[in-house]
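Researcher: Let's do a round of design. I'm pasting the structure tokens now; please hold your answer until I've finished.
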């Protein structure tokens, strides 16, 4: 039953759904792997450490757990701050750079403004180059060796973890949700939105052979869409809209104007086709292509209501039954006229 055009489209959409979400999981896995050490520290929190041990380190990376906490007798102002500027003026102080002594070595601290806290918790990280250069300018050359090449960041050392979680957790949840959809649709093709949009499994049985035959013939191409004698088919990465022209009810051209800084940059054109089931199919293309598509639909389904107006939009949204009744009257008149012409 599914070895036909509809089945192939279902498999194509499922394959794309699987591929993109596996890629998402791989990307998340790579981000987690790259930040594994940081995330391990982030989840485990700060570990107590003797300040004398810090003095013996050559690098912040010498510790597997570089989220640490310890107490010091005092902290000293260095005179350097991290500030926010606007129009060349300081508008806010974001952090102070202070100094504390640990085992005869000077450890730079990044703290909240005006902090006097001697119980310190944070992450041992590399001192920014500009900060280290500024500090060394104020220290005699023979004393510069006392400055440790890393600092304790007590301010925003956990921020990256929140960013990673905030991005990765929703991505993983979305990917798993989509993979669940993929599995369900693989096991039950009739549950795919393509089938539901067309009218369910009975519609596939009824219209599938005709659709196969018409798609084999090629149809008329308008952008990504294919218009056959009886169907409008518009595929995208994860779905394929298939509408019977017999079900077409309302068609119109949609023009979207684009601008940058209020300067017009162009227009895009869409052919919009509404079916009696409430499915909207949009086809992008050049203006001439869009107009040709709408004209062809109107020729093959002469009962459709053409054009857009506020009155038609209001009737479609608020009185769908009345709108479709008018379409059915037009259908009857069109088919009656066609039958009369055939005689």
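Researcher: That's everything. Go ahead.
Model: Designed sequence:
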């Amino acid at each position: 039953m599914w070895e036909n055009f509809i089945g192939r489209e279902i498999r194509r959409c499922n394959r794309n759904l699987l591929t993109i979400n596996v890629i998402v999981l791989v990307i998340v896995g790579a981000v987690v792997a790259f930040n594994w050490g940081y995330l391990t520290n982030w989840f485990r929190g700060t570990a107590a450490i003797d300040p004398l041990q810090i003095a013996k380190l050559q690098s912040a990376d010498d510790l597997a757990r570089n989220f640490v906490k310890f107490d010091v007798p005092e902290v000293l102002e260095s005179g350097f701050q991290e500030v926010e500027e606007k129009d060349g003026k300081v508008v806010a102080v974001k952090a102070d750079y202070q100094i504390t002594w640990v085992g005869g070595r000077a450890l730079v601290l990044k703290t909240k403004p005006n902090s006097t806290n001697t119980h310190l918790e944070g992450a041992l990280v590399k001192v920014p180059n500009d900060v280290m250069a500024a500090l060394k300018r104020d220290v005699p050359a023979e004393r510069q060796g006392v400055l440790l090449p890393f600092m304790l960041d007590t301010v925003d050392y956990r921020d990256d973890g929140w960013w990673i979680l905030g991005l990765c957790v929703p991505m993983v949840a979305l990917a798993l949700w989509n993979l669940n959809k993929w599995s369900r649709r693989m096991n039950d093709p009739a549950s795919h939105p393509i089938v539901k949009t067309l009218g369910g499994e009975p519609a596939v049985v009824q219209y599938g052979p005709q659709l196969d035959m018409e798609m084999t013939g090629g149809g008329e191409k308008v952008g990504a869409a294919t218009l056959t004698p009886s169907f409008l088919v518009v595929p995208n990465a994860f779905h394929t809209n298939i509408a019977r022209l017999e079900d077409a009810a309302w068609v119109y051209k949609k023009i979207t104007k684009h601008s940058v800084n209020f300067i017009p940059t162009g227009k895009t054109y869409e052919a919009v086709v509404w079916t009696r089931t409430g499915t909207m199919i949009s086809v992008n293309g050049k203006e001439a292509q869009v107009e040709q598509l709408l004209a062809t639909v109107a020729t093959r389904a002469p009962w459709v209501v053409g054009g857009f107006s506020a009155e038609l939009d209001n009737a479609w949204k608020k009185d769908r039954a009345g709108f479709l009744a008018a379409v059915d009257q037009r259908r009857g008149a069109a088919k009656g006229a066609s039958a009369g012409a055939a005689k």
